[in-house]
Amino acid sequence: MNTFFLLRRIIIRWLYQLGKISNIDASITSILCYHSISNDHNRFAVGLETFEGQMEKISEHGTFVSLDEIIASREGAYLPSPSVAITIDDGYHDAISILPITKRLGIPIALFVLSDPERAEKKALGSKSRLLSWEEIKYLRKEGWTIGCHSATHPNFFEATETALRQEIVNAKQKLEEMLGEEVEYFAYPGGRFEDRSIRFVQEAGFKAGFSIREGCAIHGANQWIIPRTIIDKTHMISEFPAVYSPTTFFLRKWTDPLRLWNIFLKFK
Predict the structure, then answer these.
(1) What is the CA radius of gyration of the chain?
(2) Rounded Cα–Cα distance for residues 4 and 1 (Å)
(3) Contact 120, 158 (CB under 8 A)
(4) Where do the structural domains in the chain lie, given as residue ranges?
(5) What three-state secondary structure class fits 172?
(6) Between the N and C ends of the chain, which has fewer C-beta atoms within 10 Å?
(7) Is there a contact between 153 and 119 (Cβ–Cβ < 8 Å)?
(8) What is the pTM for the complete model shown?
(9) Which of 218, 209, 210, 211 has the alpha carbon at shortest distance from 250?
C-alpha cells in the first residue's frame, strides 16, 4: 500500500474522532460517487466485496437516502441525519452486481448513464469495460434506481464547442427520456468538469440539479447546479468510513488545496 494512502488514513481518522467530540457530523448529508464495481485495474474500480463492506459500515453510522430526498430537503422536507446518498457514474455493466446488496440494506441508487454509449469516448472514461445496454438500464429503473444523465458520450466539457455542449446535455436529456419514457431530472458532469457554459445548458435543459465531484457535504446552501460528491476509489479502505466523507476531512482538503498538498494523498502510482 502506498505510504501516502496510509498517512491519509491516519490523518482523516484522527480528525474524524476530533469532529465526533464536537458533534459536527451529526447533521451532515453526503453524496458518494462510485464508478465501476469490479476488480478492474482502473483506479476508479471498487471490488464487490469492498463495496459491500463500505455499505455496511455506512449503515452503522447513518441513513441511506435518495437524491429526491436530498433535493426535497432543500425546500424544507425532513431528512434524517447523518445521511448518505450513493451515486454511480458512467453506467458500467458491473453495476448490476450490487443489486442484492442494495436490496438487503435498502440503499437507493442514482445511476448516471450516457445517452449515446455506442459513441462513448473510452479514453475519457479511462476504461474499456462494457457499458449497460438499454434493456439493462430499464431493468435497473424498474428495480427502483434513479436514472440520471451523464452526458451523451462523456467528452471533456472544457474543450467542447457550444454546439457540442448542447448535444451532450440538452439533446442527451431528451434522448434518455425517450428511451425511458419518463423525465430525467439529474445531471452529473463527466469527469467533474463544468464551467458557466455547461451549467447554463444544464439549466436550459430543465434538470432539477447538477452534480459535481467537488469536496463537501450536500448542505442547503450548496449551489444546486454543482452539488458536491465524494469520489470513492480503490484507494479507500473500509476503515476510512465514515471519515472519508466527514466535514473534518473536507476542511483539511480545502485548507491544503492552495498548496496542492492533498494531491500527494491521491497519487495512485
Answers:
(1) 18
(2) 8
(3) no
(4) 1-25+246-269, 27-245
(5) helix
(6) C
(7) yes
(8) 0.88
(9) 218
Rounded to whole angstroms, the Cα distance separating 70 from 75 reads 9
What gap in Å lies between CA 145 and CA 127, rounded to an integer? 23
User: At 92, is the secondary structure helix, strand, or coil?
Assistant: strand
Q: What single-letter amino acid sits at 37?
A: I
- Sequence-ordered alpha helix ranges (H) in 74-161: 99-105, 122-125, 134-142
Would you state the cell numbers that stand for residue 161, as one nine-digit string? 464547442
Class of domain 27-245: alpha beta
The set of cell numbers assigned to 69 is: 430526498
Q: What is the β-pairing status of strands 29-34 and 146-149?
A: unpaired
Please name the residues in contact with 117: beta carbons below 8 A apart, sequence gap of 6 or more: 91, 131, 132
CB of 137 closer than 8 Å to CB of 102: no
| Vertex 51: Cα angle to 50 and 53 (nearest 5) | 65
**In the structure grid, which three cell numbers stand for residue 108, read together?**
437507493
Reduced to 3 states, what is the DSSP secondary structure of residue 85? strand
pLDDT tens column, 68-121: 999 999 888 899 888 999 999 999 999 999 999 999 999 999 999 999 999 988
14 membership: H or E segment, kind and range: helix 3-22
